[in-house]
Amino acid sequence: MKDIKEIGEPVYSSGLENIYFSETKLSYIDGENGRLYYMGIPIEELANNSTFEETAYLMLYQKLPTLSELEEFTKKLKENRDIPEILLKEEELIPKNAHPMDVLRTIVSFVGMLDENAMSKKEDEIVEKSIKLTAILPTITAYFHRLRNNLEIVRPDPNLNHAGNFLYMLRGEKPSDIEIDIFDKTLILYIEHGMNASTFSAIITASTQSDIYSAIVSAIGTLKGPLHGGANEEAMKMLFEIDRNYNGDVEAYLKDKISKKERIMGFGHRVYKAYDPRARILKDLALKLADFTNNRKWVDMQIELEEKAGPILGEKKIYPNVDYYAASIYYMLGIPFDLYTSIFAIARVVGWCAHVLEYWKIGGRLLRPREKYVGELNIPYLNIEQRR
Ligand code: ACO
User: Fold this and answer.
1) Which of 106, 170, 219, 348 has the fewest Cβ atoms within 10 angstroms?
2) Which CATH number fits domain 231-332: 3.40.120.10, 1.10.230.10, 3.40.50.1820, 2.160.20.80?
3) Is there a contact between 36 and 278 (Cβ–Cβ < 8 Å)?
């Protein structure tokens, strides 16, 4: 065992900024130049040429699939889409005003409880559980949305791909090809992003040799926060606020927020000190969808906000992140904004599972950082009558 002298004095890093604790082949973020790679492949190439299913395979198996491998993987995803009756009953009991992220966290926990082999660490079994989790997150989300609106649930359609099937189960109508394609690309862009807060949560749980479901439950709880995955929902609320409370006056909103030292949601990133490459792709997709839906209102507002914020936030190297344009895309797809973070989870579950798999495969150690103690020592214990 290493003692403190061997590993040296602890390094202090507020927010664990700039700390490596492990190694990965899954993704690389070049924050200075605004580049992102999954398994070494530039994100632009995947967004242009791949599909959610293929990119998910790339993450879980750390290689691009052959045609037959992709067919087999897609088949398994489809077979695992529906949820057992007991889970449907559980969803029916959930209060209709629950936040969809709380629903996701609760039901995934239930799924884990039902798996008698949950603690397995066999690689092939972890992959199977990852496929199951990836397949059911959209169903859990769509079913809850239908139930809370007193609508019949829509069972998965095996003729549709992962992206199209989710939109179908949610809206109850077959989406158009262009909607499926754009939604599919947003999922690809959300699949993986290194050691972000939610992935780190998953890995902390996995590092104790707990089970993969518990790791994913930890990750969902972490993703929910507005500084992380919750930002896409907040970014859309911000656009509504500009529209309603500021009469669409982007400049007035910006001045107000900056003077109060409040944050512009969907801007800024711990690692990117240049434009987030995912936001660049999403901006183009948002414009394409705006043309298709014949409604440029929200994306125009976003572009104006980005332009006006540039001279103020650009100085601090703060630019739009992935959540900024995803927000208007999901709005134009007719998705209620309290589902946006669940959609993030629906995609990111792949990255979480891939990291857990990789961490166990490389024999990752128990994660146990330290806090610098700044209190006093040897304080005498006072009996309760002596205390003030
Ligand atoms: N709007 C205005 N100012 C900002 C923003 C923002 N969105 N983000 C950071 N800043 C400012 C801070 O006020 C701070 O200024 P100061 O030095 O004058 O005090 C400075 O930039 C550094 O901010 P930190 O919070 O220390 O930076 P950190 O790396 O911890 O924050 C974070 C990253 C949390 C993402 C931040 O940029 C933020 O809160 N953004 C808004 C929420 C958001 O969009 N989150 C999604 C991130 S991407 C994702 O998780 C998928």
Assistant:
1) 106
2) 1.10.230.10
3) yes
pLDDT in tens, 338-372: 999 999 999 999 999 999 999 999 999 999 999 99
- The confidence score (pLDDT) of residue 7 equals 67
Selecting among 145, 269, 276, 355, the annotated active-site residue is 269
d(CA 168, CA 388): 63
Report how far ligand 1's centroid is from the alpha carbon of 14 (Å). Answer: 14
Q: Whose CA is nearest to atom 25 of ligand 1?
A: 270
In whole numbers, what is the pLDDT of the chain averaged over residues? 96
What are the pLDDT digits (tens) for 171-199? 999 999 999 999 999 999 999 999 999 99
> Taking 80 as the threshold, does the pLDDT of residue 276 lie above it?
yes
| Residue 143 · residue 153 · CB < 8 Å | yes
Cβ–Cβ < 8 Å for 270, 316: no
Pocket test for ligand 1, best of 193, 253, 318 (most atoms within 8 A of CB): 318
Residue nearest to atom 41 of ligand 1 (CA): 265
Phi/psi at 30 (5° precision) = -100, 90
DSSP for residue 267: B
**Matching CATH topology for 27-226+336-361 and 231-332?**
no
Closest CA to 175 of 190, 184, 165: 165
- Neighbouring CB atoms inside 10 A of 368's CB total 8
In the reported structure, the alpha carbon of residue 299 is separated from the centroid of ligand 1 by a whole-number distance in angstroms of: 22
- pLDDT at site 9: 84
pLDDT for position 1: 44
Query: Edge-to-edge strand order for the sheet containing 41-42?
Result: 27-30, 35-38, 41-42
**Residue 347: C-alpha distances to residues 106, 138, 184 (Å):** 18, 9, 10
Domain boundaries, the chain: 27-226+336-361, 231-332
Residues whose beta carbon lies within 6 Å of some atom of ligand 1: 15, 196, 227-229, 231, 263-270, 313, 316, 318, 321-323
Domain 27-226+336-361 has CATH 1.10.580.10: yes
Over residues 104-113, mean pLDDT: 97
This prediction's pTM: 0.95
Shortest-distance Cα residue to atom 6 of ligand 1:
263
- For this structure, is 228 an active site residue? no
